[in-house]
Amino acid sequence: MSGWRARRTVRQAWAAMARVMWRCLPHDFAPWETVYRYFAAWQKEGVFDQLNGLLRRLVREAEGRDAMSFRARPVARPTR
């Protein structure tokens, strides 16, 4: 899987997690309140940001690039 595809897959997974309908979780999961409580705590603690950083580094290393450097994207500025 190429770098951009891996990043797109991670972003899609993140977006899907953000849209989870908590009350509609499969029956083999814990009650939705419990799952949401863990998710909210991990999100507040930055677990998902850390995971995203780790995955980014692993993809960059797998592609033979420097794991810690990346190009910052220019900030879009509104035109007047």
Automatic annotation (TrEMBL):
It comes from Streptomyces aurantiogriseus. Residues 14-51 form the Insertion element IS402-like domain. It holds the Pfam family DUF4096. This is Insertion element IS402-like domain-containing protein. InterPro entries: IS402-like_dom.
